[in-house]
Predict the 3D structure of the following.
Amino acid sequence: MNRQCTDNQNRIGRRRFLEGAGAAVAAAPMIVSAPALGRDGQIAAGERIAIGMIGSGQRANQLAKHLMGMADAQIVATCDPFRQKRKALKAFFEKGYAARRADGTFKGCADYNDFRDLLARRDIDAVVITSPENWHGLMAAGAARAKKDIYCEKAMTRTVAEGQAVVKAVRENKCVFQVGQQQRSDPIFQLAVDMVCKGDLGKLHTIKVGVPGNRTGPAVNPQPVPEGFDYDLWLGPAPVKPYQPERVVNLVWMSTYDYSIGYQAGWGCHNLDIAQWGNAADQTGPVEIESTRGVFPTEGICDCPTSWHTEFHYANSGRVVFASEDEIPMGIRFEGSDARVYVNRRRITAGPDSFKSKLQSRLPAGYKEGVSRDGSPPHVRNFLDCVRSRKDPAATVEIGHRTNTVCQLSDIATRLKRKLHWNPAKEQFVGDDEANKMLTRDMRAPWHP
């Protein structure tokens, strides 16, 4: 966005005051509450970051709970082609905000079918994108061109080419962009990476990354599109396929190649992200990729691999082994010449035994083994802080793009079943036209990058 920190503060406050001045005069006389004025330790309404939620599914509802607990943000709009879902999320916000008001009422959250209508609102400062992955690139680039700050769930884009377009749009428009790779904001993942980067493990030589395999899907079973669901808009740039209820469920579309590359990115963007970070590869990628195993469904609508084994080799001699959890346990294992550390959302462990005390002495306050954690609350908080400061957040658009690219390279290698050579500076395969064509995809009209 073409603004500095002070411009942003004025945009959030003065702009809304001016836009609302006419209505305020027409409604006078009125009583202004203490929260609206920012008294009693509360943030004035005009100084809150106005947020639009694009997507109203499971992840949107999880993030909604975090955002509702942050006094300097206010959700002013929801958007989803599922009318029932977007209105349910709208009702959640309005009920929550109403409970904070003396009169117990609040009706300040709009809802939209089409995300373009939400982006057209000049009073919205930032958007949270939780749509299916085939939409992320178009929505994020559109939001950047509309001068919105962006929190975009992973995988950041469906293809490498879309990721390049989003990076360009975000930086040209000076947006704050946080990718939902929230493990970066959790202390146990930060500790694991810190131990690697400080040389506590000795010379790092191998990183093993495990994620869930994809699921098989139901058989094709066309059904009428239900009333209140804009299925054509849900499909967007993806090919037209018959509607059936299962197709639009998270665990099915996430394993369907029209919309996603499955958990190679859906979970890979979390665990490979920590591997990239620990391997000092946030701004680069591997130079060689080889997949030696890939098992694909033979029937049903899901067509992403149920299991795979991919190896990446980096110019710094780093080696990353990435496989489904039938081979490598869920999480990230850093192996050095002197020691090793393993981390996932429930635990962090180290070896050999002589090294365990070094880990124990550095465990973060409140750490309890076996208790699931993912870093979402501080990750969202970091985004809001950066909207105000105009600083880069924990998971920048470049980090999201580079991590997602590694996931995409694994998928391409798994499908082509041969060793591939990658130029991370040019972001192209070396001497392989077929592989390079897989860095992009056709989009259904009228959608285009």
Observations:
- The radius of gyration is 23 Å.
- Residues 184-371+397-437 form a domain with the Dihydrodipicolinate Reductase; domain 2 fold (CATH 3.30.360.10).
- The chain has 16 helices and 15 strands.
- The chain has a mean pLDDT of 91.
